[in-house]
Amino acid sequence: MGAGREMSISLDAVRDKNVMQLKKLNTALFPVRYNDKYYSDALSSGDFTKLAYYSDICVGSIACRLEKNEGGSIRAYIMTLGVLAPYRGLGIGSKLLNHVLDLSAKQNISEIYLHVQTNNDDAIAFYKKFGFEITDTIQNYYANITPPDCYVLSKFTGQAPSKK
Q: What GO biological process terms does the UniProt entry carry, in alphabetical order (predicted)?
């Protein structure tokens, strides 16, 4: 039965014509309002930003920003990953995150990281299932939500640029 359920989950690129879908999801999912830079970063990250559809209904998204490290390697920052509450537990968040993990491996991304509010136990447990580890705590990261502190969760892919 699970395999039939999986068939109805699809991912689609975020483009100018459907970026409003991402804005609507973010408004429903997150206590933070995102500015224009967030959306331009999401659009410019190409395949690293996706909308998730369940039976043709837009129910989730992942939005990333690609950053250059001091050493020249690229890392991916997961700005947001969310699935509407009625659709959680169906593998949609896992499919979105696995998409970014697979893409990162193919493109020699050295690290994937994100910020999670310190009291968001569900999100922390979710990311730990995928090999992310808490690498830092930032006090007063969030301005208008409580608690204001966050953890930095990181996953190092071992994909260092080759030195030939």
A: mitotic sister chromatid cohesion
